Amino acid sequence: xxxxxxxxxxxxxxxxxxxxxxxxxxxxxxxxxxxxxxxxxxxxxxxxxxxxxxxxxxxxxxxxxxxxxxxxxxxxxxxxxxxxxxxxxxxxxxxxxxxxxxxxxxxxxxxxxxxxxxxxxxxxxxxxxxxxxxxxxxxxxxxxxxxxxxxxxxxxxxxxxxxxxxxxxxxxxxxxxxxxxxxxxxxxxxxxxxxxxxxxxxxxxxxxxxxxxxxxxxxxxxxxxxxxxxxxxxxxxxxxxxxxxxxxxxxxxxxxxxxxxxxxxxxxxxxxxxxxxxxxxxxxxxxxxxxxxxxxxxxxxxxxxxxxxxxxxxxxxxxxxxxxxxxxxxxxxxxxxxxxxxxxxxxxxxxxxxxxxxxxxxxxxxxxxxxxxxxxxxxxxxxxxxxxxxxxxxxxxxxxxxxxxxxxxxxxxxxxxxxxxxxxxxxxxxxxxxxxxxxxxxxxxxxxxxxxxxxxxxxxxxxxxxxxxxxxxxxxxxxxxxxxxxxxxxxxxxxxxxxxxxxxxxxxxxxxxxxxxxxxxxxxxxxxxxxxxxxxxxxxxxxxxxxxxxxxxxxxxxxxxxxxxxxxxxx
Length: 571
Description:
By secondary structure, the chain is an alpha/beta fold. The chain is 47% helix and 12% strand. The chain is built from 22 helices and 16 strands. The radius of gyration is 25 Å and the shape is globular.
């Protein structure tokens, strides 16, 4: 059996806490294994090479690489999540882990000691294997290319947090190429040339040219986090020219690199990566089918080019047909009310049997839904975040802090932080000032903190007990209509005669809202208040549908009811 969940954090929770509890309850002797993607494990070969090369960005990176080396010498799993002293998002990890593109496979001199190989052997011998959705689809992609499978054969797949599957499937059934991949390719080729017996001045020059072209592509865009449709990206000054320069630099680099491929397995791997990147770049530049969308994603140091299918359903159905077995999809947020049709349509499983069970929690007794009055009727009003903060302050005083304030945009989060930092006496934690796991540890330990979060805190976060007694959500989480993938999907639905808002945008917002609201009550003893600050819950006809989809909490619009709720809670 394979159990797939949404994130690596939830994998660890399933493996370390939930599965042992199930085994104890059933008195079962089944063996479980945890399997993550290759980049989550230390690569001994790349670590040794990086230590020998010694070319790192800073002293901090050098110290962290030495810490990884000490960890690799004592760890049984080599899982980077087990090394707390080096943040999981630290840039130095790229020097100590491998990817599918740069892994040497059985030709690697450290293959027998490889942590990835060890993890896969454990998975093959286990009765239950815990993975995440990205690893599941990575395995699908490899099988489609005729490459050896990552995952063991099984007769049952259970998808936890299954509401994430359509988006993950869309990502993996599409194609993408990032500037960061090309920068890493140029660096790896230089290292492999030296390791093979000497650098090539000409290839060094071409590698430097590729590195510069990949970085220049990022300089065409001002704002980190932007997502632009292809036509919109081409209107950015210099993007078309930078794209041409990148294609020329990559082609000039790939040919002489291929001539060096037989000198070593590492150079052969780099040559294959260059050829694949050339193909991907051509595919992205030439794509234009009506069932897919081209777009650009901007990161702090890199740009990623995408071709994404509008609907993953047909491709997912094919995977199910090719692998007959039990397919089980579970999540607290698959249905709008009792209606599963949106999820079924998105994933292409319209014929699936569906059933919903009521929550074990007594929401009428444990929770209160508060929709403040007096907020601007339009959530896009320039003073809306200010009004949300004013509505939040008396709630925070009544609860004594102990709150998540969840925002639909980072801009609103930053503005709320500015407004709150001088006005509350409780510890204030803000997304972006540490990893999510670090912030949650501090939040639980403080006991009266207020945490401001955006997208990543809306789901997969489990804080039980009195440390979290308020969840405030600023707006209904409708996806921004200018998002290139969403805009293309809306246009396609409209062309098919559908109603994009009712058929897609509203159900998506309902399911996302349910995820955020689900952070509040996590067990039978939790109590708390859910504060929804969007007036459209009452001013729009669809507000009734949204309210009906939430847990059956008592509804109030009076602050006095919130204060009375907390006054009744034990000190």
